[in-house]
Amino acid sequence: MASMLYNKMGLIPKQKPIRVMIMGQPGVGKTALLVRFVTKRFIGDYDSNLEKMYMYQVTMDSETVNFEILDTAAYIQYKSCNMEMNMRWADVFILVYSITDKCSFDDCSRLKFLINYNKKKRRLSTKEHLSDVPVILVGNKIDQQYDRMVTYADGKKRSQELGCVAFHEISVREDVDQAYEVFKEAYTCWKSMSYKNPKLKRSSSDNGAEAFFNSASRFISWPLVFGESAGSSSSRSEDTPEFRARASTEGHVQWRK
Ligand SMILES: Nc1nc2c(ncn2[C@@H]2O[C@H](COP(=O)(O)OP(=O)(O)OP(=O)(O)O)[C@@H](O)[C@H]2O)c(=O)[nH]1
């Protein structure tokens, strides 16, 4: 009843966004994954020197979900002093490696360690457990079977060893649904985490991270807002004309200046 009234007045309460951070070595397909999710398109090449922040609204399980997705530029991951802030900002992490690149696979262990380390302060203050940090391990490029260096079994085993909440093998190039499922999983984890701990609030240190993130992002990235009208997943790209103007299957994505 209250929501109907809100709707009539045009005052729809804003859903709390789910904040997702995508990490992984250069060239594993981080940008390709999120662009696939947002636009359904596979775009060949991207500017890898940009750290990009996306806001995207989508319907999942008949619910409106607001994603805020940070696509970390690999070179910034290793140099940036704000990496710690970015990690504290995120609710869910997607760790990507390429099944054709053993180094990128091994590096996921280091990244998982960093995530745990940076979340530790918050966990100590809120008495949450590290196992509550949802990290999804994703092996990309399974269309390149002949160049495979990491088996499915190895990926699955590593995911369990690292305490990841889920493991996916995907081809961003070949399968749009697989890309979608990764983000759906992120949403499911985030939702069950919120149910388990309904009082889960961002700690003051995380609010600090947010403030820092927002101010820093003005210099390193620009938010792009895309939306999806309620409906089937097949309409996703049709409802994002602004992005479509920027993205093509041949060209680069252009970023707002
Ligand atoms: N064969 C194949 N190539 C892919 C796939 N996903 C991405 N690529 C290619 O891999 C290359 C790197 O993709 P990006 O999305 O730029 O990778 P990234 O991890 O964002 O790289 P950085 O921005 O340097 O960190 C591009 O040439 C993509 O076209 C896939 O599923 N299969």
TrEMBL record:
EC assignment: 3.6.5.2
PROSITE patterns on file: RAB (PS51419), RAS (PS51421)
Record region (Disordered): 228-257
Signal peptide: none
One Gene Ontology MF term: GTP binding
Protein name, per record: small monomeric GTPase
Top-rank lineage group of the source organism: Eukaryota
A Pfam cross-reference name: Ras
Gene3D superfamilies assigned to the protein according to its UniProt record, in alphabetical order: P-loop containing nucleotide triphosphate hydrolases
Catalyses which reaction(s): GTP + H2O = GDP + phosphate + H(+)
Organism: Cinara cedri
Keyword line: Hydrolase
PANTHER family reported in the protein's UniProt record: RAS-LIKE FAMILY MEMBER 11 (PTHR45704)
Organism placement in taxonomy: Eukaryota, Metazoa, Ecdysozoa, Arthropoda, Hexapoda
InterPro entries in the cross-refs: P-loop_NTPase, Ras-related_GTPase, Small_GTP-bd, Small_GTPase
Biased composition (Basic and acidic residues): 236-249
Protein family according to the UniProt entry: Belongs to the small GTPase superfamily. Ras family.
Broad enzyme group: hydrolase
